[in-house]
Write a structure and sequence with these properties.
Strand content: 15-25%
Shape: elongated
Structural class: alpha+beta
Number of strands: 13
Distance between the termini: 9 Å
Number of domains: 3
CATH topology of the largest domain: Multidrug efflux transporter AcrB transmembrane fold
Number of helices: 12
Helix content: 40-55%
Order of helices and strands: HEHEHEEHEHEEEHEEEHEHHEHHH
């Protein structure tokens, strides 16, 4: 308690001012702040619904459900890599009709089709060892392969499954975007063997049965890396990189239906939920002030700042590809975290009361109250964070949103109780 709290108080005031500006954007003064808005989920903002049928003609009957689930996993991975939060992805099987239904919040139909539609099957082709007099049927090869490799092209054993990761880089000479391929150890070995036997020859890179690049090999490439430098812009390069990272779909998907999805709850439910949250804060403030007096006033100020900080995080996250999507379950997590923020203050104040009853001075009682309540606050919040981690890891859609919002609320509530409340009480007692 002997530390001067002025620096901490100044820091809190600066954070509070920034949080107010973030939550009440003044576009005339700060034009860039007009992009700060809550990302809403399907239940609040609507989105796009796509239905696909799995083409099972080349899949054995006892493997069809497994293949359909594999396609669902790949689609979910792609959507997550694209930064679309809280999608709804379901499979449906009826009378040998295998379907995948995908609902994406805040995404238009064309963008959704681009994310899901491509199969992203990567392969590498080389010239065959022998040259036949007659060109094989064009349909037997990917589009463009016979034109590039001649009469007898041959598919290598290197595929997209041998990729470790891909990334978007820029050609140092032209400045154009390109896709960097990094192979696994076994893939790097295969790639080295392919380039070694094709020096001064062409190796065609094929994506979804279309040649996207056909470079000439000047020397064996032993590093396990390759570059696809087609006619990309940044968006298409990122899309290709994401699709390759997510992997190829295990079966072709036939689009059946596509339509926009209206918000199931809409702004009315959002407004009611926010009003409920505000009303809850007001009731808690009245309760804390009535029960704890000056301590309750400090805790109430900390609680209001806590709400501003959390809402600021929600808004600022909209500037990133992986912004927090606000759904009704997420709002529930936020309101629940408000109660947890108050719980930490109550623990501190009750411990302080105990020290006062033992005859401690106010400053010593408060110092001991903070230090002795901290272990309980820490352990309870860590337990909640572990639960949030489990829900986020094994849940999907709205369950993940609830877990993420609750985890953010718990972390901010710990900062609010230990830093904000403590600083305000130091100022009051000084």
């Amino acid at each position: 308690m002997k530390k001067n709290p002025r620096f901490q108080l100044f820091f809190i005031i600066i954070l509070a001012i920034l949080a107010i500006f973030v939550n009440i954007p003044v576009e005339g003064i700060f034009p860039f702040m007009k992009n700060l808005s809550f990302k809403k989920g399907l239940d609040l903002a609507g989105g796009t619904s796509l239905t696909y049928r799995g083409d099972m003609k080349d899949v054995e009957e006892n493997q069809r459900e497994k293949a359909l689930d594999g396609a669902r996993v790949v689609i979910e991975r792609r959507i997550n890599l694209f930064g679309v939060s809280e999608p709804i992805i379901q499979t449906a099987v009826t009378n040998n009709d295998y379907r995948i239904i995908v609902e994406l919040p805040g995404v238009d139909i064309d963008q959704a089709k681009k994310i899901i539609g491509t199969t992203a099957e990567l392969s590498f082709w080389e010239q065959g060892a022998s040259i036949s007099a007659k060109i094989a049927t064009q349909s037997a090869y990917p589009l463009g392969v016979p034109e590039v490799l001649g009469n007898n092209p041959k598919k290598t054993n290197l595929t997209g499954k041998d990729l470790k990761e891909t990334s978007v880089t820029f050609d140092p000479n032209t400045g154009k975007p390109q896709v960097q391929l990094t192979f696994t150890d076994s893939g790097a070995k295969k790639f080295a063997e392919i380039t070694e036997r094709n020096v001064n020859k062409i190796v065609a890179i094929v994506l979804d049965n279309v040649v996207i690049e056909a470079p000439s090999v000047n020397q064996p490439i032993l590093g396990g890396d390759a570059v696809i430098s087609g006619s990309f812009d940044s968006e298409s390069a990122n899309a290709l990189s994401t699709a390759l990272n997510a992997g190829a779909l295990p079966l072709p998907l036939i689009p059946l239906q596509q339509h926009a999805v209206d918000a199931t709850l809409g702004n009315t439910s959002l407004s009611k939920s926010l009003i409920a949250g505000i009303l809850g804060i007001v009731i808690i403030v009245v309760f804390m002030v009535f029960l704890y007096g000056r301590l309750g006033i400090a805790a109430s100020i900390a609680l209001i700042l806590y709400a501003l900080f959390v809402l600021s995080i929600f808004r600022l996250s909209s500037l990133t590809p992986y912004g927090i999507t606000l759904t009704l379950s997420g709002i529930a997590g936020f309101i629940l975290s408000i109660g947890m923020a108050v719980d930490a203050n109550i623990l501190i104040f009750e411990r302080t009361k105990e020290e006062l009853r033992l005859g401690r001075s106010k400053e010593n009682a408060m110092s001991l109250g903070f230090s002795r309540a901290w272990t309980s606050i820490r352990d309870s919040n860590i337990a909640t964070l572990i639960t949030c981690f489990i829900l986020y890891s094994f849940g999907n859609g709205m369950v993940k949103g609830f877990a993420l919002v609750l985890a953010i609320g718990v972390l901010v509530s710990m900062f609010s109780a230990i830093v904000v409340t403590r600083t305000l009480l130091r100022v009051i007692y000084r």
